[in-house]
Amino acid sequence: MTPIQPHLDGTIPTPTIPAARRKAEDYETWLEEAWPFYIAAAASGETYTIYEIAERHRISQPPDSHMWGRLATLLREAGYHRPVGWTTSPRPTSHHSGLRTWKGTAAARRAAA
């Protein structure tokens, strides 16, 4: 058990859960949270990974980890981004596994303008 340091007035602080550990209750709620960040990334014209955007904006975890891949597929099918290559994952638990890189489409950039 981790000890909790009380405030100077003796009250116990409200525990905070970092975004990396937050988990959405259901798929629709999670998708509603995550979607705008990926639309903005696609419109920016930068090359990115799904993980980079999630970390940058501290997006909560989906109910099932496989939903990250579904998000990438939905964005591609909707015409917002396209695959451009591969890189290795910076996530410590992935052991540098391959990770797809994405770039926003011209349509995504026009929609943002």
The count of helical stretches stands at 4
* Strand-pairing-aware structural class: alpha+beta
Assign an overall shape. Answer: elongated
How many structurally independent domains?
A: 1
The level-1 CATH class: Mainly Alpha
Average per-residue pLDDT, rounded, comes to 87
Largest sheet, described in full? 3 strands, antiparallel
Low-confidence stretches: none
Order of helices and strands: HEHHEEH
- Distance N to C terminus: 51 Å
Percentage of β-strand residues: 15-25%
CATH fold-level label: Arc Repressor Mutant, subunit A
Helix amount: 25-40%
How many strands? 3
**What Rg is obtained from the alpha carbons, in whole angstroms?**
17 Å
Q: Please give the order of strands in the largest beta sheet.
A: 1-3-2
Superfamily at the CATH H level? Answer: Winged helix-like DNA-binding domain superfamily/Winged helix DNA-binding domain
Which CATH architecture would you pick?
Answer: Orthogonal Bundle
Q: Notable features of this structure?
A:
3-stranded antiparallel beta sheet, 113 residues, 15% strand, Arc Repressor Mutant, subunit A, 38% helix, alpha+beta
